[in-house]
Specification:
The complex is a heterodimer of chains A (about 325) and B (about 290). Chain A has about 325 residues and is mostly helical. Helices cover about 70% and strands about 0% of the residues of chain A. The N and C termini of chain B lie far apart (about 45 Å). Classes of the chains: A mainly alpha (about 325), B mainly alpha (about 290). Chain A: It comes from Noviherbaspirillum cavernae.
Chain lengths: ~325, ~290
């Protein structure tokens, strides 16, 4: 992994990590606004991209920063979706508090399961996360009297946001709602990951056995980030439930977890933005190719994965960064 | 009482099938330190080879099994030589992604060639029905399967404990660098072992069509079970997966028989508990 650069002999490097927003980032966040006006026919797809993007960012905290390979992250997404959906079905239709409740529920579940995950090595973690996901799936499947089982949770009716903005058929309000929630959560996560806590996670990822030597409590940090990731995934799930007014069993399924890992790796891990870019590219491609034939789609996504692993480690973000660095180095070389 | 023994017998048959398919994965994970989620795809390949040979060419069931072994072993050998070996030193995340990608491609290819439906299997007459064993009626096919797995396991034990090649495998598991220094061609041992493991998976896939079924979703549907056997048993051993497969087989069958309302919950719960108690597997190496 090339995310950690050697410390430069520049006195500013020893202060808190730089949290200033770069122009490119500000430009990035103008894209959804442009999208709203330019592609008003695709707002439903747009809000789905933002929701999956938020979900992918939540996995990035765990996988990209802390280096825990999780194959069961959909557990939290689905739990959040069911929490928000069930709340709405039983009469509590206010969206924002619904999000909050979903976040709290998944955070608690994430905190409890984090102790199972933090123990052990890669393979054990992989299996335990997979197991937790599958258990939740089975639970939701068998408890059909609560969740609707294979038919999914139907009859979700959401109230107006702030009592003013009503979800419309064209997905305008859903798009703006998802966009604002995504932005707020992202700003918070960006701040957290650019703090010493985030740096500590990178340290654990790069060499967990050495971190205790500088006084870091590895397990505690992993527990915190796992809980945080779970809560964010829960918010993403709740957003999906509220904007589509439906929760399916597949929101908990293994294929959703696997797909999410693919999205994140496609975009690039350990940078937060990778999840958003991966979600956009993946979902647009899926929307296009799966329309032709779902079997082909699966074939191409498999091939894409193999190519990424063999030739393009670091994903789209990694590739872009490598090109930018290359140009910078050439420019610097030219000056000498 | 008869019920209990019947469930135990079915559990053992199911477990021994799981063992046959998973033991190759245990070796890949232990010897080569490679998390190979595509292992089920080799089993699926073996299954399709069996079905094709029997339905299209009229080759008898017993004769199609060794061909399924050889076919899957060759596929494993080719993939190991071309793709897998490049990723031995890669991170576990890369290996997971690579093998998921391979699984997706195998599933899509199987759907393309054979269609999404379940494949039928025509068992020979003498394998259908029940036989009497110590006064107990048991499925003839399940008895046959246990017999095959016992023979294979003994052969595998002999290969690993008594032959020169087995000694090379054991040496390479323990210390690759030292083995290479002693003149063992570690990369060749890897290739052959991988082929052996894939072949056994293919054999298991062919043998298991009647019990596990066969359709393009096979590699994903049973991926968890194969991984479970290895993770719970401990990678890199033979006895570990055997023990784990038997335990899991019995619990899965018993769970589905006695408490069908919670279904697969039993097995996942058992897995999480076992992994917490034995993070390196029941008989795994402590590193």
């Amino acid at each position: 992994m090339s995310a950690v650069k050697p410390v430069q002999t520049n006195s500013t490097q020893f202060r808190l990590p730089n949290d200033r927003w770069r122009p490119l980032e500000i430009l990035f966040w103008l894209i959804p606004i442009a999208f709203y006006f330019l592609f008003s026919g695709y707002l439903v797809l747009g809000s789905q991209i933002m929701i999956v993007g938020l979900f992918a960012v939540s996995l990035d905290l765990i996988l990209g920063y802390a280096g825990i390979v999780s194959l069961g992250h959909a557990a939290f997404f689905g739990l959040g979706a069911y929490a928000a959906g069930l709340l709405a079905v039983h009469g509590w239709t206010e969206p924002l508090t619904g999000l909050l409740v979903a976040a709290v529920v998944t955070a608690v579940f994430g905190y409890l399961t984090s102790f199972l995950v933090v123990r052990g090595q890669d393979l054990t973690r992989l299996m335990v996360t997979l197991g937790i996901g599958l258990m939740l799936f089975e639970a939701a499947n068998k408890a059909a009297f609560i969740t609707g089982g294979v038919d999914g949770l139907q009859g979700i009716v959401m109230g107006k946001i702030f009592g003013v903005f009503e979800f419309d058929l064209y997905g305008k309000v859903a798009f703006i709602y998802s966009g604002i929630v995504l932005f707020i959560v992202f700003v918070i996560l960006r701040r957290v990951m650019n703090s010493p806590f985030g740096l500590g996670l990178i340290g654990i990822r790069e060499g967990g056995r050495r971190m205790p030597a500088i006084g870091a409590n590895v397990n505690q940090r992993l527990t915190v980030v796992f809980t945080l990731g779970a809560a964010v995934a829960g918010i993403a799930g709740a957003l999906l439930a509220q904007t589509t007014q439906f929760v399916g069993l597949d929101s908990l399924g293994f294929s959703r977890s696997a797909e999410l890992v693919i999205i994140l790796v496609l975009g690039g891990t350990g940078r937060l933005y990778g999840g958003l870019i991966g979600a956009a590219v993946f979902m647009v491609a899926q929307d296009y190719i799966a329309g032709l034939n779902p079997v082909y789609w699966q074939f191409w996504i498999g091939l894409l994965l193999i190519v990424i692993v063999l030739f393009a480690r670091g994903g789209i973000m990694g590739g872009v960064v490598a090109i930018v660095e290359n140009i910078k180095q050439r420019a610097a070389g030219g000056r000498k | 009482m008869g019920n209990l023994i019947g469930v135990l017998f079915d559990g053992v048959a199911y477990g021994s099938l799981l063992f046959l398919i998973s033991v190759g994965l245990s070796i890949t994970m232990g010897l080569m330190n490679f998390i190979n989620l595509a292992h089920g795809a080799f089993a699926m390949l073996g299954g399709y080879i069996c079905v094709m040979l029997m339905t299209r060419m009229g080759i008898p069931f017993l004769a199609s099994l060794p061909i399924a072994f050889v076919g899957s072993a060759i596929a494993g050998l080719v993939l190991e030589r071309t793709l897998y070996r490049r990723l031995y030193k890669a991170s576990h995340l890369d290996q997971v992604l690579f093998s998921i990608g391979l699984t997706f491609m195998a599933m899509a290819a199987a759907t393309y060639v054979w269609g999404p439906q379940q494949q039928p299997v025509q068992l020979p007459e003498w394998l259908r029905g029940q036989v009497s064993l110590f006064g107990l009626e048991v499925g003839a096919y399940r008895l046959f399967m246990i017999g095959v797995v016992v023979v294979i396991t003994l052969a595998l034990g002999f290969l690993i404990e008594r032959t020169r090649f087995g000694a090379q495998i054991r040496a390479s598991v323990d210390n690759q660098a030292a083995s290479a220094g002693l003149g063992i061609n570690v990369s060749r041992v890897f290739s052959l072992t991988f082929a052996l493991g894939s072949g056994m998976a293919g054999l298991g896939g062919g043998l298991g069509i009647d019990i596990l079924g066969l359709d393009p979703a096979f590699p994903i549907k049973y991926m968890v079970y194969f991984l479970l056997v290895v993770a719970v048993g401990g990678a890199g051993t033979i006895k570990g997966p055997l023990l784990a497969a038997l335990i899991l087989g019995i619990f899965d069958v018993a769970g589905k028989y006695y408490v069908p309302s919670i279904g697969a919950f039993v097995i996942y719960g058992l897995m999480v508990v076992l992994l917490l108690l034995f993070p390196a597997g029941l008989l795994g190496r402590r590193t």
